[in-house]
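Sanity check

After download, print the first record. It should look like this:
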Amino acid sequence: VDAGETFGSLAFKVAELLKIQDPSTIAMGKEPNPANAASILQLADKAIESAGLRHGDIVYVSFQDAVDDYLEKQRGLIDRKKDPKFCRHGNNAMCDYCMPLEIKHMSFHAYLRQHTAAQHSKNSAAPSNNLPPLEEQDFRVKIPCSGGHAPWPEGICTKCQPSAITLQSQAYRMVDHVEFSAASLIESFLNYWRLSGSQRFGYLYGRYEPYLEVPLGIKAVVEAIYEPPQQDHSDGIQLADPWAEEARINAVAEACGLVKVGMIFSDLMDDGTGSGSVVPKRHVNSYFLSSLECIFAAEMQRRHPNVCKHSVSGNFGSKFVTCVVSGD
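Expected structure tokens:
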């Protein structure tokens, strides 16, 4: 770019290069810490030379979904009114019976605030507290290793071997709710099974919005279901992956202001009574997702990472949702 160009022009070029749908979510700064970056909305009309930048200077760019920017500015507490039975104070005071509640079942932004507060409390005197608080897990063997031995798999030591893995429930939800904009989306999707008896798969296109029923919550609003090329069977689905039209479909969705927010597939079996009911196969005493479905969902989340300026790598987790249509 030329020195006389504006930061707004630079933002559009960066958005095109990094395939960022909304350039207004970009922030720029002279330091790697995203907290010190300025929103492009504040810099759009300013010339690049006005910031004192010269050829060779480094400009740090950060961006994230607009819904994340919105939720970072919210309080995230559940407000309670003054209890006329237990509260014995004036209108400008507060007690245990009326103070705002902390979040129990955390959304991602609630977890982020809790994690950030704990890190700042622990390292309040250390300069490292300005580093991004989140870091993606990496369980790969470190190659090369500083231990001086032959690289894996010929050798391994405590310096290069990955940490032990413990499985536990995730403490937060990346997406708290899925909302379909019209019932006809599901009806049209189910009609294929009703007519053929075969299962069906589709990608969900929509957008992310704040979910007001949960403090700092996020919901995926589905506006369209696209069913890619597939071979359907009564007990499963065989997908073409990758599919030829994926880039074109994504471009059309982007032109409509939509992104791929998840996927949906059916697992339905008629109960044979002729009443239109289906067999409830997935429940607390059986399973909700099979091992193969878990692997597939994890792979799709890996392909669609969540952009997060609070992560060392720039990504953390995924907002890609998986919906299963089954008997209840």
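If your output differs, re-run the checksum step. Summary of this record's structure: Helices lie at 7-18, 40-43, 66-72, 108-122, 183-196, 246-255, 291-303.
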